[in-house]
Design a protein that fits this description.
Pfam families: BNR_4. The chain is built from 3 helices and 32 strands. By secondary structure, it is mainly β. The chain has one domain: Neuraminidase. Strands 15, 16, 17, 18 and 21 form a 5-stranded antiparallel beta sheet that branches. A 4-stranded antiparallel beta sheet has the order 1-32-31-30. Strands 2-3-4-5 form a 4-stranded antiparallel beta sheet, with no helix packed on it. A hairpin with a 5-residue loop joins strand 16 and strand 17. It is globular and about 60 Å long. The chain starts with a helix and ends with a strand.
């Protein structure tokens, strides 16, 4: 009897384990829980076809930690604001920071991170190939949210360094990520579009350290049209899995427009993938070969072998900085988007052509180690990006422009993509910012979006919540 009880307990544990494949696993679904308003009058201007409050590359513009959700944005008066609420609450508590948005540039987003070693909230904001602004909270603010006052006094002064660590005078795309040990890392680009390098810094609970650059801008790339000798790597994401492996999908952007069939296109090409098993110090291609060392002489370069997992030339308006997610087995998934060849082999206006013919694709690594790509059969109707999340059963959800939600089941091999929510009543401008951490906290898909407006007329900023399969 004792043996039977042990076996039954083990069986129940296996059935309950998130991500475990079994016949009873539900397919994807979304149930609308509600929408809250962060700001009825947030700053609004369209720049680079995007908004500064909800660019999808803005990692952790919305996140959940210790039973509370946090958001950051710029108000109509251009003030930087950070807010929090208890999960499920209908109202947010806001703190206005002593910084105002310096330029009408949608790159100048606010990104947030948590250093679990000391419970601080960190914010990096307002940069595009120039200096950044950095703020951190008092220690323990996020560890004791119900007893630590949520006021401006909880935040330190605005800095233009990381506590004295100067990184680069050409800084863009801050993305915070937490290591398995609780250290906080900051990913960023040094340089400019078409001629930049990715780099990392790390906070151990006491001080920031520059780990250095890990990608190279040099090397020759040649297409059927011409060559380029400078570029930058655009990340689709940079994320740790449950076993501590750091994953990054990317695309290259060339500096020389001669690689394109038309000057109206965009020089992005190829989807690549690298990973690190030593907290971002050493990088390997999908075959496990070392292709670069952070801070070392050998960096990840366009000429390295084995980087490309989905080849595409620069003639299809491939979008940079789409999104990625890691499943429960540690296998990487990404969303990429471009104009498929059936609509022509040369885009001449990347915004117009992507809006008319752009499609998103789900790219994933299979258990066999191969790469599978599936088109999501929902027209983008936009030049903008799509966000990817996976639920506890590894079903995939693509949050398309305008807040539309499509999904595919793990059981189908992620091939049965269908539209679950059409976003019709959101009046969303385009891209959304997804709370990547709330899924694990309470099984909710939560995303930030801003309502359409015109010119520079402010508009409402909201967070929409959807329950996923329990």
């Amino acid at each position: 009897m004792k043996r039977r009880t042990v076996l039954a307990t083990a069986l129940l544990a296996a059935v309950a384990a998130p991500g475990t494949a079994r016949a009873a696993d539900p397919g994807p679904s979304v149930t609308r829980k509600g929408t809250t308003t962060l700001d009825p009058q947030a700053v609004y201007f369209v720049s680079y076809d995007g908004l500064v409050n909800n660019n999808s590359f803005q990692k952790n513009g919305l996140f959940t930690y210790n039973g509370h959700q946090y958001a950051a944005w710029y108000t109509a008066s251009r003030n930087a604001v950070v807010a929090r609420r208890a999960l499920g609450a209908g109202t947010w508590s806001t703190v206005t920071l002593p910084h105002r948005l310096k330029a009408d540039d949608s790159h100048n987003v606010i990104s947030m991170g948590v250093s679990r070693t000391d419970g601080r909230l960190h914010l990096n904001m307002d940069s595009h190939s120039d200096g950044f602004f950095y703020v951190k909270s008092v220690a323990g603010l996020l560890d004791r949210p119900t007893t630590t006052a949520w006021t401006s006094a909880a935040f330190g002064a605005v800095q233009t360094t990381l506590d004295g660590l100067a990184l680069t005078s050409q800084f863009t795309y801050p993305q915070f990520l937490s290591t398995p040990e609780g250290r906080l890392q900051l990913s960023y680009r040094a340089g400019i579009s078409g001629n930049g390098r990715n780099a990392l810094a790390e906070y151990d609970g006491t001080a920031w350290t520059a780990l250095g650059e890990w990608t190279s801008a040099t090397g020759t790339y040649t297409s059927e049209h011409g060559s380029s000798t400078a570029r930058n790597m655009y990340l689709h994401g940079i994320d740790y899995d449950v076993d501590g492996r750091l994953h990054a999908f990317f695309t290259w952007r060339e500096q020389n427009a001669a690689v394109m069939c038309s000057g109206g296109g965009i020089t992005n090409h190829d989807t690549g993938y690298v990973y690190s098993d030593d907290r971002g110090r050493t990088w390997r291609n999908s075959a496990g070969t070392v292709v670069g060392t952070t801070g070392g002489a050998d960096k990840v370069s366009v000429t390295d072998p084995g980087l490309v997992v989905d080849p595409l030339n620069p003639d299809h308006s491939l979008m940079n900085q789409e999104s990625q997610a890691i499943d429960s087995a540690g296998r990487p998934h990404a969303i990429i988007s471009y104009v498929p060849g059936r609509f022509g082999q040369c885009t001449t206006d990347y915004v117009a052509d992507r809006t008319a013919h752009g499609r998103a694709f789900h790219l994933r690594r299979t258990a066999a180690g191969t790469w599978q790509k599936t088109e999501i059969p929902v027209p983008l109707n936009s030049s903008q990006r799509t966000k990817l999340v996976l639920d506890r059963y590894d079903n995939a959800y693509a949050v398309l422009p305008y807040g539309r939600i499509a999904a595919a089941s793990k059981a189908s091999g992620h091939t049965d993509w269908t539209l679950l929510f059409d976003g019709g009543d959101l009046n969303a401008f385009g891209e959304v910012v997804v709370d990547e951490t709330r899924l694990k906290a309470d099984n909710t898909l939560s995303f930030l979006y801003q309502e359409k407006s015109s010119g520079t007329t402010p508009s409402a900023l909201h967070v929409a919540d959807f329950a996923l399969p329990a």
